[in-house]
Structure formats: C-alpha cells, structure tokens
Amino acid sequence: MYVGNQWLNWLSILELIQFKDGQYDSDELAGLHCFRHLRNQLATSLDSINSILSAEFVRAAIHDARAVDSMIVSKIKASSSNSINGLEEAELNDDESSILQDRLLPLIVGLLRTVKLPAVLRIYRDTLITEMKAAIKSTVAELLPVLLARPIESDVLSGERTVDSDGSGLSLASKLRNLSSESFVQLLIAIFKVVQAHLLRAAEVKRVIEWIMGNVDGCYAADTVAVGGQGSTTAAVAEESESQVISHGPYSLPRSASKVSLFQGRINESSSPSTSKNFLADVLRENTEAVFSACDAAHGRWAKLLGVRALLHPKLRLQEFLSIYNITQDFIATTEKIGGRLGYSIRGTLQSQSKAFVDFQHESRMAKIKAVLDQETWVSVDVPDEFQAILSSLSSSGVPTDSGHAKEVSFMPEAGSNQENEVGPAVHNADGNLNEHARSTSKTIVYGGVGYHMVNCGLILLKMLAEYVDISKCLPALSSEVVHRVAEILKLFNTRTCQLVLGAGAMQVSGLKSITSKHLALASQIISFIYAIIPEIRGVLFLKIPEARKVLLLSEMERVAQDYKVHRDEIHTKLVQIMRERLLANLRKLPQIVETWNVPEDNDLQPSQFAKHVTKEVAYLHRILSQILLEVDVQAIFRQVVQIFHSHISEAFSKLDVNSPQARNRLRYDVQHILGCIRKLPSDNSSKDGVPNYGLLDEFLAERFGPEEAQGQ
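Structure (tokenized):
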C-alpha cells in the first residue's frame, strides 16, 4: 500500500472495488467460474483498507501525545523553585491545525465511503480514554518522587507524614497523602497541563471532522450510504468488527482546503435523504462523544486523586484548601468548555470536599469557643489594634468601592502562618488568655461610634466570625451553609455565656468565687457588641446568597439577634434584681435600727447604718456599671432601681412606729440622705418641677415633714 512512504490513490482502489462488486451482482459476471472467488477477495481488500484507514486515523488523531506529556513533566522536574508558574492558555497553532487537517482529510473521506467512520470514532474514543488515563498515571508516577523529596511546610501534614527512604514501601495512596498541600497542587497543575494538551488535540480532531463534513456540501453521508446499498458486500463490511486495527507508517498530504473538492468529486451522488440524515447524526454524535468521554475520564481520575486525600483536605488552612479548590474549578471549567457537557461527578466530589472542609472548620471552632468560654474569667482585657482593624475591614467588606465592586478582605491566616484559630501571634499566653501587653492596644473596641469593653472570649469570637466571612467569600457555593454555621456558633456562644454568667456556671468551670455585678456588666457588653454587629455580619454573608434562599436565612439570623437582645435584657434585669435583693436585706434590719432612734437626743445628725449601707451599695453599683456599660443601658437599669427604692423604702418607712421627736428627726435624716443619693443616679425618667428622679419617697417626705422639707431636697 505504500510507495516511498506516500499513499497511493487508494480512493481509486475503493472505487474499483465497489465498481467490481456492483458488476458481480449484475448479469455481466454471473455464472463465470473464474470469478467465483471475486466477492471474497473484494471483501478482503476492503477489510484491509478499512483496517489501514482506522489505524492511521487513530494514529494521526493521537499524534505525539506522549512526547508532549514528557515535555511537560520534564519542565516541572527541572523547575528549581517549589512552585509552578500558573496555567497559561494552551491551544494548537495554525500550522499544527493545518497539518492535522491535511492528515485526517483523506482518512475521513475514505472512512465515509466505507461507512466505517462512526465505528472508527468509537475505536478512537476508547483509545483516547486509554491514552488519557495512561498519561495521568504516568505523570503521577514520574512526579511523585520529585515532589515527595521537597521539604514539607504544612503543619497539618508534618506530624502525619510517613517516612520511607526509597518510597518503595508505600502505596500510591500513601504517597499522595504524604504530599504537602503545595506539592499536591503542583501535581494537579502538571496533570491539568497534560490533560489540556490531550483534550485540545481531541477538540481539534472534532473540529476538523466537522469542518470536513461541512465543506463537502453535506454529501458524504449520502454517498457512502448509496455505495452501501449497491450490494451485500458493503452490508457485510458494515457489520465488521470495530476492533480490527492494523498499524502503518505516517503519511503527509499537501495543506490545502481545495483538496476537499478533489475528494468530494470521488463520491457517488446517489443516496437516500432520510438515511443520510441518520448517518450524519451518527457521525456527529460519535465525534462529540469521543471528546466528552475523554473529559469524563480525566474528571474521574482527578476526582480519584482528591478522594485519596479526602480526610486531609478538611484540616487544611483556608488558603491551602482554596488553592486545591481553585485549580479544580479551573480544571472543571476548561474541560467542560472543551467537552461541551457538565462534569457532574467531579463537581459532586469538589462540593462534597468543600462541605467537609466547612464542617470540620466549624466543628473545630465550636469546640474551641466552648473551651475558651469555660476558661473565661470575665475580666476586661485591652483590645489589640488588629481586632479594631478586623472590625473596620468587616464593616467595609460589603460596601462597594469606587469601581462598583465590593471590597474583598481576607481574615484567614496565609498558608505557612501559625494557626490554631489564634487571634494573632503573641496575643495568647500559656493559659489561652489574651496577652494584653503584646502589642498596641486600646481599652475598648469601637463600632458605630460606641466603645465596648471586651473579654478574651469576645475577641476570639470576633476573629472566628471574620474567618467565617472569609470562607463564605472564597467558597461562594457554600455561602448558605456558612450562614447556618455562623448562626450555630452564635447560638452556642449566647447559650453558654448565659449558663456561665447568669446561671453561675463559671463558679464551677472557671473557679470564680461568685458572680459579681462586674462580671454581669462585662457579659452584657460582649452580648451587646455581638448583637450590634450581627446585621453587619449578615449583610456580608448574604452578598453571595441567591435571593430565593435569603428569606429563610434572614429569619434564622433575626431569631439569633433576638436571642441576644433577650439575653442582654435578662442581664440588666439581673443587675436590678441584685440591687433589689440588697435593699430588701437592709430593710429587714431596719426595725432593729429604729429601736435605737428613741434614745435621748445626742445631737448626732448622721444618717443611720441602714441609710448608709443602702446608699453605699447603690453608689458602688453605679460606679461599676458606669465604667463598663453604655450610658443608655445604665440609665435603663437605674430607672428601675430608682423606682424600686422609691416604692420599697417609702412603704417600709410608712409602716414604722415613729412617735418621739428624736425618732422623727432620725427618719427625716435617713429620707433626705437616701433622696440625695437617688438624685445623683442616672435615669431616663422625666423629673417633676426640675427634681431629678422624683418619686414616692419624695411624696412620703412631704407628707410626714411638710412640703418645705421635700423642696429642700
């Protein structure tokens, strides 16, 4: 079949075979003994040509693939750095496309004439899949020793890496798991380049077939089917095994689109229109299926690589996981663009590992915040400047910039940094509490123009919330999941804080001797701060969430915010209750004190121990709360305290049996002393006639001692 490595005019041979086959069926050769074996000989010749065409088509379509693979791997091996420079746009140049077109043109025309193109395309598809799998396997085998020899930097893997001197004792899966995340990404990039080279070649073959079919005025299928209808020989050929392939040397044809007209003229012109359409559809379907099957095979191998490390990826830092996630997303987008269909399998694998990453990160943070809360001593700490910067960045991360795009701010530690959910280097001491002298600090963290006093657990929660926002931005497909996790950690923080402070659980787990008003005030500040920033957190998280899901998620976040508001109000109620209980305890001692008021006048104009204790305790509470709580909260609390003082003290004094002048004077001194203290307390109550915190005790004084005494207060 070859002369000087050039093809003979095998189209003429095909025409001759088909012509003789047609003559054999006619009356011209019927009954001639010398031609009794002609049909079998013609069929054998046609089989031989089909085998040659099939083998040469597959050879031309997958030409130099392994050489390209070796070149890619060699470049990576020779790289002196530990990283590979990104992914450049790869495509066949015009010369390569033209050469490929010239090589495939006569082969495709011949296969069309013998009605074998769909069958050969199926063989080509299987070969392409096999070559794709082999190329990926070879790339992994060649690069693994190189990548394993590079130093590991990931804290996640450094303690788990299995040492093997020659690598022969480890399975392939173990070797893949021993790779650092950076080395694994480099391996993925190499596989990406190899797969891309194979798919681009396959896509070009697909394009060439479509181009050839379209440039023969659509007559290929019609002519070949017409030939197939001329006799039983062609029908037998169509049923021939698809796996028969014979290897032959390469060939070359002149690169010219005008060749199409040359081959077009060699095709018969008679056909059945309906059958032609079916044949054409079969060719185009198999042509498309070949490329998609190759993509699907690549997706399967990529997903398998990810699956081997499925237990490691959730434990990675965000930036490390994101590098794997992004290269996989790029791989999916590139291969789907070439293949023309969605890769559901690899998308499912990536989504599954992304969710596992979010779940693991969330579980670790839930465990950490619970441990931090259980160790919390509810002591005010200074706020390092980095936390104010986090809050400021968080507030602006959802605000459009001048370019119209929202700012993207990262709160997660970069790959290679020391991270165990810490709030920053040198910020924690050995006990897990913040080191207040590690860096530039301030007494409060400012949000919305309001300063909030913080404790250790509040700062750590702020850092975690910022990290959740970062995860949501980097993994937008899981934004809804992140919102659920944020709601969950906020609920845990709120519930556990309530148990530890209002429920006095900190006395058991943290070793506190008692829960003081200062502890309550600091807890109120933390709860008030989180309640204030929840709308900001919600707004940032909702940037990537589809409108259809926002309603349900919004209601969930609103319930969380409402729980925080209720908790804050309960703390304030507890502070009022503490003051009420102290007042009642002092009032129970009042009858004993009154008995001493009937002694002869000793010119002692000092208030009684009752009045001193009551005013001292309320003044102390005022001083503590004024240093910690917001002014509006202090006013709301002391409004209730003032009302309790007025009602309880005036009721108790009205029941006293005070008859002697000495006792009346003592009573007057006590009332005036207590009213003097009440006047100084903050309250949002309106005053009567300019008298601050006017109430029942004022009316009692005026009733017992005259309006002049009351006005004197």
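Strands lie at 2-3, 6-7, 383-384, 441-442, 445-447, 450-452. The first strand starts at residue 2 and ends at 3.
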